[in-house]
Amino acid sequence: AQSVSQHNHHVILSEAASLELGCNYSYGGTVNLFWYVQYPGQHLQLLLKYFSGDPLVKGIKGFEAEFIKSKFSFNLRKPSVQWSDTAEYFCAVLTDSWGKFQFGAGTQVVVTP
Amino acid sequence: DAMVIQNPRYQVTQFGKPVTLSCSQTLNHNVMYWYQQKSSQAPKLLFHYYDKDFNNEADTPDNFQSRRPNTSFCFLDIRSPGLGDAAMYLCATSSVQQETQYFGPGTRLLVL
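YS: structure for the whole thing
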């Protein structure tokens, strides 16, 4: 079945640590890939997206993600997190087959001072 | 600023009492979506409109209905809310179906 998997449900790390969140999907065709962030009490906001071209995409607030087609992955990274990065992060995949977003279950990230 | 607006932000209703949630957008997008998001879960698509064409997800209960009277507005009607319908309801829009979706702040529904 077509699906999107986020490997970690909860991540706790200290300020200045590096962050990497995994996202894998199961679909062999063309995909559009997204990472959304939901800060406490706020709405889902787009962090970055990949449609085509350079597989390393840069988003807002110092985030980047790398699309590795052979691994069906789109992992999110930030070299040095801040307390304000505490939020829930959702990977989403859009395919021509599904015609709609398929969200991962989300990863709750807590950054401690 | 162009945005997706949802009203109210919090809604309390009684078991079985119909409730309507509202979404409006100033982005002039063709597609509007309604999602249900329960605590610590991914948003789950209920249905979407492409212009006036309504697309219901196969597993969306009949209890949930939607109306889109014009491009800017879309409503979610829950005919007989049950305790299990308590959730955050998210509205989103996109210019076309294969594009970035922009989300509203959500309406948190509490069913007593």
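YS: worth flagging: Chain B touches chain A through 18 residues (CB under 8 Å).
IM: good catch. Also DSSP finds no helices and eleven strands in chain B.
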